[in-house]
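The protein record passed on below.

***
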Amino acid sequence: MKTEKQKMLTGEYYLANDETLAAERKHCKQLLKKLNIDEYVVGDGTAAVLAQLIPNAPKSLYIEPPFHCDYGYNITCGENVYFNVNCVVLDVMEVKLGNNVFCAPGVQIYTATHPLDAVLRRSKENAKPVTIGDDCWIGGGAVICPGVTIGNRSVIGAGAVVTKNIPDDSLAVGNPAVVIRKLNHTNENIEVNI
């Protein structure tokens, strides 16, 4: 028989108020307090807090507080990942960020989702993983929804709500986000307000 945590990590319906999961979220919040309040000005203690909060990330991970997540251990980062202020990652399932991923202020990444059936929604929830490829830029206030994959070298415009997968080398904007052009990174010299 699976534990509620095992169900959560495999995308099955689970009880979020499970004692083990509640304790893990509380531990995460304690680490977030250290990051967001005690170490608010990024300093010597920040790296130690991040190593505990997001153990599946290299030392090059940079987070500008305040930052919020559910568990931390479900976030996997490549090298040179940057989160600006007020980013939220609901990491009920894996959130995988490649190398050189930059998130502007207020980016929100959600894996948590809920049943459409109202009765089931009273007690259960589930999740879908999110993957962001290498060399991506996620614009300010963008929302990445559960189950989405953003391809390598893509740019998501400010305020975009990404509900579907975005291919490699794409500029996607809007709500819902749509690809408005392919990017040719070898000759790209234009700026986009993101």
